[in-house]
Request: fold
Amino acid sequence: MRSNKLGYEAPIEVYEGKFYRYADEDYSISNSPLDSKMCDLISDAIDKLRQFETVMPAHELGDVLSKVKHKLELLLEDA
Reply:
């Protein structure tokens, strides 16, 4: 999460040789913006996961996927 490999570049520091925390107390990974490429990947993943709705009870997978899709659409509107 510290590297840009996943796009986070979180300001994580190690203290006392074994604990991790954000160097910036106001930082939150939840506030990290999603770029259009990441939004496309998430949307594709949702579409692929929908194929499993017949295997899992619809209320479990379907509800989760619908919430994620809705949240993604809201993020795209705000961008």
Q: What stands out?
A: Strands lie at 12-15, 19-22.
